[in-house]
Structures are given as C-alpha cells and as structure tokens.
Design brief:
The protein is mostly beta strands and about 250 residues long. Among the domains are: about 80 residues, no CATH class; about 60 residues, no CATH class. It is built from one helix and twelve strands. A hairpin with a 5-residue loop joins strand 8 and strand 9. The longest helix has 11 residues. The termini are far apart. The relative contact order is 0.14. The chain binds zinc ion (2 copies).
C-alpha cells in the first residue's frame, strides 16, 4: 500500500498519459526492421533512390516507399509498379545503339548493374566505355522488366503490420554480377585490355595461404638479426618451441 502513491507519482513525473480503459492504438514502427523483398525493386527516394538488382529474396532495413508500388506475399514485398527512370545525357540503349538525347529525359527501363551507369540522386548518367560513335552491339544489353509478383500476392500491409517470411523462406539470393562480366565492351584505345583474372604464373603455386617457409630468408635480411630465422618454423611445431606458448 505504501508503494502505490510512489508509482502514481513516477507516472505523473514521467509525463506518461494513460487511462485504464483506453488501449494503445497507434504503436510506433518496429524498432528492429528486417524487411524482405522478393526481387528487384526501386530504392526509396528518401534513402537516395536508384535500383536494387538482387533478383530474389533478400532483406533490407527499410520498408517499401511508396508502398503502393509493391505487392505482398508470404512476407515478401514485390515490385509491381512500372519502371520509369531519368537519364542524364546519352547512353547505351537496350537492344544496342546509343540514345543521343543530351537533356534529362525518361525511359521505362533501368540500366544493367555494373555497366557504367551511375546513379546521380535522381537519375542515371552513363560513364562507361561505349560512346555515340561506338555504340554497343544489340546483345550487350537485353533489358527485361522485373519479374511480376506471384499470382497470390495482395496489397501490402502497413509497416506496423508487417510480418517477415517464415524462416525456411529467408534464403537471400546472391548479389548481382556486374553486367560487364559477361558483356565486356571493347575498351577505348587509351586503355589497355582489363584483366578479369589475377595473373597466376605457372611456376608459382596459387596457394591462398602465405608462402610456407620452405626457403630460409636468411640471405635477404641484412639488419634484422634479432629475428631468429627459426621463427617461421614455430608454426609447424608449436609444442617444440616453448616461446610460443604464451601466444596460444
Ligand atoms: Zn533490394
Ligand atoms: Zn535516353
């Protein structure tokens, strides 16, 4: 009985307004957000805009915006709105060729990921290797719209009512591969041919681990006499070297 007045006093001091009969109707959005998307989608303009090329299930820490551009099924948001993007200046076109429009203009497609297009906050600008005088061939860019939502998709719930997919469905799709990996344009004359793979000389073993101390580097060390060349061996036989015990 003595604690009740204190509790009421604390509630009053904290500014907490409540009545015994009124339930909380408008809770704040969930604090921890893992929102799953079912495929490619536009990125919310308030977050910078652009396009997300992940072609399959993947989570984000933000809800769709605008939410009407999406459909919903099994905990996944699916992009369903038409694709419309602004382009700044000339650029390669789907199916080959070059769009010569210099002023900002719109198209109903998004560029391939990793193809030389850069997002400039409200549109795309092309800075890749193709030019008006050297446009890409027809096969360089075959645009396809994002896959439509599944037939069972419905109007998405409000963020407060969102429930993520069941755990077995939360398998993130792989990250998109840069477009130029498989459709590499011919580089301009000034730039040498890019090396897609690191050079691996046949004489050297392409081991991922650091080189084993097969040869003692005693001859290369001129000043470092304090380091005993036996130190690299310590990795091979730790128990034989008492000085290594403190490390492990
Ligand atoms: Zn995404
Ligand atoms: Zn254009």
């Amino acid at each position: 009985m003595r604690r009740i007045p204190l509790t009421l006093l604390l509630l009053a001091v904290s500014g907490c307004v409540f009545t015994m009969t009124t339930p909380v109707v408008d809770p704040p959005p969930p604090a921890v957000v893992e929102v799953w998307y079912g495929g490619e989608h536009a990125l919310p303009t308030p977050l910078g805009g652009g396009w997300c090329w992940i072609d399959g299930p993947h989570p984000h820490e933000f809800f769709p915006d605008p939410i009407d551009a999406y459909a919903f099924a099994d905990g996944f948001y699916y992009w369903r709105a038409p694709v419309v993007f602004t382009y700044y200046g000339g650029h390669p076109m789907p199916g080959g060729g070059w769009c010569p429009i210099g002023a900002p203009h719109r198209h109903d497609y998004f560029p391939p990921y990793g193809s030389g297009f850069a997002w400039r906050g409200s549109g795309w600008a092309y800075g890749g290797a193709w030019t008006a005088s050297r446009p890409p061939p027809p096969g360089w860019w075959n645009w396809a719209p994002p896959r439509p939502p599944p037939p069972a998709a419905v109007r998405p719930p409000a963020p407060a009512q969102y429930r993520p997919p069941p755990p077995p469905l939360r398998k993130p799709a792989p990250q998109p591969r840069p477009h130029d990996d498989d459709g590499r344009p011919p580089t301009p004359t000034a730039t040498p041919r890019p090396l897609a793979q690191p050079t691996a000389p046949a004489a050297t073993k392409p081991t991922t681990r650091p080189a084993t101390p097969a040869a003692k580097p005693t001859e290369t060390r001129k000043d470092d006499k304090k380091n005993d060349p036996a130190t690299p061996k310590g990795r091979d036989k730790k128990e034989a070297d008492p000085s290594r015990k403190q490390v492990d």
